[in-house]
Design goal:
By secondary structure, the chain is α+β, with helices and mostly antiparallel strands. It has 2 domains: 116 residues, Rossmann fold, CATH 3.40.50; 170 residues, Sandwich (Tumour Suppressor Smad4). Helix content is 30%, strand content 35%. The radius of gyration is 19 Å and the shape is globular.
């Protein structure tokens, strides 16, 4: 049987993946990697393709695209019911490439290709979010992090207006655009049973350390500790948020007086306001939401 199945999202990275794919394929062939591949055709297609590949017995399934593609592939592998038996490879060609920053997979595709021949694998946790969408509760896995409130509005604006730009620039453009209209939201947050009430700017539930195209959003996060890192940016003013941006890139924002950081296994968040939710850069739905972790559920080739 063919050794690997590659799932390629040609529109990832503002369409740059389609241009890189012939070079990636040539590199893999030069490494004598036996593989088949599929090109995704629409949102959600990578999930279907990953489920099919796992069900057919492929030992290695490779995501070629951005963090959103990784999210779909991970969900597809989980849907197949044999997640522990499949290894995930990653060639990151997306806009942000935040997940691989924590793992240590090279961002340069020709170096990432070499990782696929490696016998080493890293067992990492997977986050799960149950949320409200179209009148019903839906469950979705996330590899890197989920965000709500202002963070989700940034994703919405970035996706609609600035996706063609590079990772950091597109995120900052989306941030300042969303900043004009966003208002902080009242929430109730329960983390392993302990509750926090109050207005928030944003809440990040992180498995990995990075977000927003290189921001060190959860500097203490560990992909293999069986816990999710919850970073709550409270009722900050817009000028204070802008002044604090350099601290988020450096990972020193956890000491800000209006930032709360906790580790937890189960997080439940609700609000009387309408609060949007994103996971791995993809808009999902709205609060209420429940987050929890699947320890060491995914094997990544490194």
């Amino acid at each position: 049987m063919t050794y690997a199945r590659l799932i390629v999202n040609p529109v990832a990275g503002a369409g740059r993946t389609a241009k890189k794919w012939p070079e990636i394929m040539a590199r893999l062939e030069s490494l004598d990697l036996r593989f088949d591949y599929d090109l995704t055709e629409a949102p959600g297609h990578a999930r279907e393709l990953a489920k099919s590949a796992a069900s057919k017995g492929y030992e290695l399934v490779v995501s070629v695209g951005g963090d959103g593609t990784i999210n779909e592939v991970v969900n597809g592998l989980y849907d197949a019911g044999n997640l522990a038996e499949v290894r995930l490879g990653i060639i990151s060609t997306g806009t942000g490439s935040d997940y691989i920053r924590t793992i240590g997979i090279p961002r340069a595709y020709h170096e990432a290709c070499h990782c696929l021949k490696s016998p080493r694998k890293l067992a990492v946790d997977i986050g799960v979010v149950e949320y409200w969408s179209n009148g019903q509760m839906v469950r979705r896995l996330f590899a890197n992090f989920a965000g709500l409130g202002f963070d989700a509005e940034i994703v919405r604006t970035t996706t609609q207006k600035f996706k063609a730009l590079s990772g950091t620039i597109s995120y900052l453009a989306g941030l300042f655009s969303a900043l004009i209209f966003y208002r902080n939201k009242g929430t109730t947050i329960a983390m392993d049973g302990a509750e926090i009430d109050g207005k928030i700017c944003t809440i990040l539930v992180s498995n990995g350390r990075y977000g927003g195209g290189g921001m060190l959003t959860a500097p203490e996060a560990d992909l293999s500790d069986g816990l999710l890192d919850v970073v709550i940016i409270g009722d900050v003013s817009k000028p204070d948020l802008i002044r604090s941006l350099p601290r988020i890139y450096k990972g020193t924002h956890l000491t800000h007086p209006k930032v709360t950081w906790k580790k937890a296994q189960v997080i439940e968040i609700k609000s009387a306001d309408r609060v949007s939710l994103q996971a791995d850069g993809e808009l999902l739905g709205e609060l209420p939401a429940r987050f929890y972790v699947l320890p060491a559920a995914l094997n990544i080739v490194v």
